[in-house]
Amino acid sequence: MPNIPNPFTDAWKFLIGAADEHVALGGWGYVLAALYLALLVGSILIAIRNWREDPAQRSGTHLSTWFVRVMIGSMWFQGMLWKLPLPASGGLKFWTEQMSTRAAFEFHREFVTGILLPNLHLFGPLVFLAEFTFAVSMILGFGVRLVGVLAVLFVLHLWLGIYRPAEPAEWPWSYVFLAMLMFLFSVYAAGRSLGLDAWLRRHVPAVRDGTGLWGRLLKMAG
After folding, report:
1. Better-scored residue on pLDDT, 59 or 11
2. Does residue 1 form part of some domain?
3. What is the mean pLDDT of the chain?
4. Total domains in the fold of the chain
């Protein structure tokens, strides 16, 4: 019988670096798989530390928020992989070209055609770094309020960029749902649910009290 993929086999391949995205990158695929596992283990350890130290964190609400946040961070990590190899992968080039004709507004199409496509070798690494930042923030629960806002803007760009029907078709509401979820992570400061943001507020007085430049920045971000 053919090896028919399912969510369990796909998840296992992703964890061991055997997914299509990893295989396409050669040896770097294993490096990125190890990086993801390190982030995942780090997130679990941070969650355990919060759970043990702060009774207020021991609730189904915080645990559920942590789980969903980590899953969305994993989605960003997986999406980041097809932006490789740098400076601009074939997949990134294809979908950016789609924006040049499918964007909802003329000024957006002109921006893609005149600015993004001719300079994709510069923007490609920025897109990769943006999605890597979203992944790390969500998985570790670090700076979630600020990063969530940036992710909303990023997703809205994608939503409006491939808004017009075409082949391959995409369901616009999928981007709206993702933007709303990132918005809620930001509004409810999801990093304070068993995340690094909660740990920093409890252990670093400058962050808790918002004193000093870095203290104010980290308090605002998380």
Report:
1. 59
2. no
3. 93
4. 1
